[in-house]
Each structure stands twice: as structure tokens, then as C-alpha cells.
Design brief:
The protein has 251 residues and is an all-alpha fold. It has a domain of 126 residues. The protein is built from seven helices and two strands; from the N terminus they run H-H-H-H-H-H-H-E-E. Strands 1-2 form a two-stranded antiparallel sheet. Helix 1 crosses helix 6, helix 2 packs across helix 5 and helix 5 runs antiparallel to helix 6.
Length: 251
């Protein structure tokens, strides 16, 4: 056909193919659990109000004073560092200055437990709660501050002081639980499910002789690992080398 140029084979030409490049995989950075913890670590579940269940909740006034003393007792025994002698001395001063308050609190608490039992177990749980190694730095810092403040507290004001400061000791542990919960919520499932290491067991060492009085020679429970065993009777020797707990007397 005149004036019309035909392009031979036009229909058979194809556009060059375009290579599809897959986007690079998104790198998932595994964050480490909080210092002092490990993947799979058991911690208390949050309660309905967002807090954590500890041995220091819903206490009577006598129990508040006695639990507070127990926490400071653990600090005097376990907190090591440049100021550990001061911590021990201030704790011993509380035992002397608040002797009547502590005696009355112990008697009232023992009466509460006589009606329901379980005192020995409750005190063991309490001491081992305060002895958990993961919260050691925060716990010792709080205890040191509290012991410094305690020097001006009178016996009449000590119950209120204990009620205001016991939550500070408790927070060393519950704040850790919250940090661990936040890590667990964002960590890879495989990391969270890693089996927990075997538990650390408290070791108890007793001397051959035992007497019930507070100031006499008593069997000693030495600090081993991060756990402690308390004196179920509530008695103890003053803090100081070798910083033992008094064990219950044997007859």
C-alpha cells in the first residue's frame, strides 16, 4: 500500500523483563532481660490493681513493724560494701532503741499466728523474699537510706515510720518484676521460654551448742549464695561479724 511503511515483525518484539528484588529481612534485635534475671524466670503475676503479690501486703500494724525489722535484718547481714559497718551499727541501734516496740510487735504477731498457724513458714518466705539476689543493689540502697533516717525516730513514732518505709524495701523487688514483665512482653517467644536455671538452695550451718536467749551463744546460719533461712522464733543476734541469724534452740 503506497505511503504506508510496514514494520516487519513488530508484534513479536517484547519489552525487557524487570527483575523483582525482595526487600531485605527486618533484623530483630534480641534485647537482654533485666540485669539479675534470666529468660523463663518465674515472677508473681500482676494483681487486678496492677501491683504484685509480696509477703508485705495486707498486714496488721504488728506485722508491718516485724516485717520491716526483718527486711532491715537481712540488709544488715547481706549488704556488703564500703558502708556495711555503718549499716550494721544502725540496725543494732534500732534493736536497742526500739526494743519495746519490737517486743510488742513480735508478741502481737505470734498471737495472730496462733489462731491460724504457719508462722515458721511465713517467716521463711519473708526472709527469702528479702534475700533475692536480683534486687540486691536497689534493696541495699533503700535499706541504707532508711537506716540513716531511723536514727531520729522515737519509739512512739516507729510504727508509723515502719509503715511508711516498708513499701520502699518492697519496691526494690516489685520494680524489678515490672521491668522483667516489660521485657517479657517484647522479647521473642523462644527467649522467654528458655528453661530456668536450677534454684539456689540456702545452706544452713549450725554450731554444736544452742541456747534460746537473744544475747547468748547460738547456732549460726551463714549466708550462702543469695538465700537465707530465718530464726522461726523471731530471735536473732545483733548484726556484726560473721553476721549470722540465730537458729532456734534445740533441747
Amino acid at each position: 500500500m503506497a505511503g504506508v511503511a510496514l514494520i516487519d515483525g513488530c508484534a513479536s518484539h517484547r519489552l525487557p523483563s524487570v527483575a523483582t528484588v525482595a526487600p531485605p529481612p527486618v533484623a530483630i534485635v534480641a534485647t537482654a532481660p533485666p540485669a539479675g534475671s534470666y529468660p523463663g524466670m518465674p515472677i508473681p503475676q500482676r494483681l487486678a490493681d496492677g501491683s504484685y503479690d509480696t509477703p508485705n501486703r495486707t498486714l496488721t500494724p504488728a506485722a508491718v513493724v516485724w516485717h520491716f525489722r526483718a527486711g532491715l535484718n537481712v540488709a544488715a547481714l547481706a549488704c556488703r560494701g564500703p558502708g556495711d559497718a555503718v549499716v550494721a551499727a544502725r540496725y543494732n541501734a534500732i534493736l536497742a532503741r526500739q526494743r519495746s516496740v519490737l517486743r510488742d510487735a513480735e508478741a502481737s504477731l505470734a498471737k495472730e499466728y496462733r489462731s491460724r498457724g504457719g508462722y515458721d513458714h511465713a517467716m521463711t518466705v519473708l526472709y527469702n523474699f528479702f534475700s533475692q539476689g536480683f534486687a540486691h543493689p536497689a534493696f541495699c540502697s533503700a535499706a541504707s537510706q532508711i537506716l540513716a533516717e531511723s536514727e531520729t525516730v522515737t519509739p512512739a513514732g516507729f510504727p508509723a515510720f515502719a509503715a511508711a518505709r516498708l513499701p520502699m524495701l518492697d519496691a526494690a523487688f516489685t520494680d524489678f518484676y515490672a521491668r522483667y514483665d516489660r521485657w517479657r512482653a517484647t522479647a521473642a517467644p523462644t527467649a522467654v521460654a528458655t528453661p530456668a536455671p536450677p534454684p539456689i538452695v540456702a545452706l544452713r550451718t549450725a554450731s554444736p551448742r544452742a541456747k534460746p536467749a537473744l544475747a547468748r551463744s547460738t547456732p549460726r546460719i551463714q549466708l550462702e549464695q543469695v538465700a537465707l533461712l530465718p530464726d522461726p522464733t523471731g530471735r536473732e543476734v545483733h548484726a556484726g561479724p560473721p553476721r549470722p541469724f540465730a537458729a532456734p534452740s534445740s533441747r
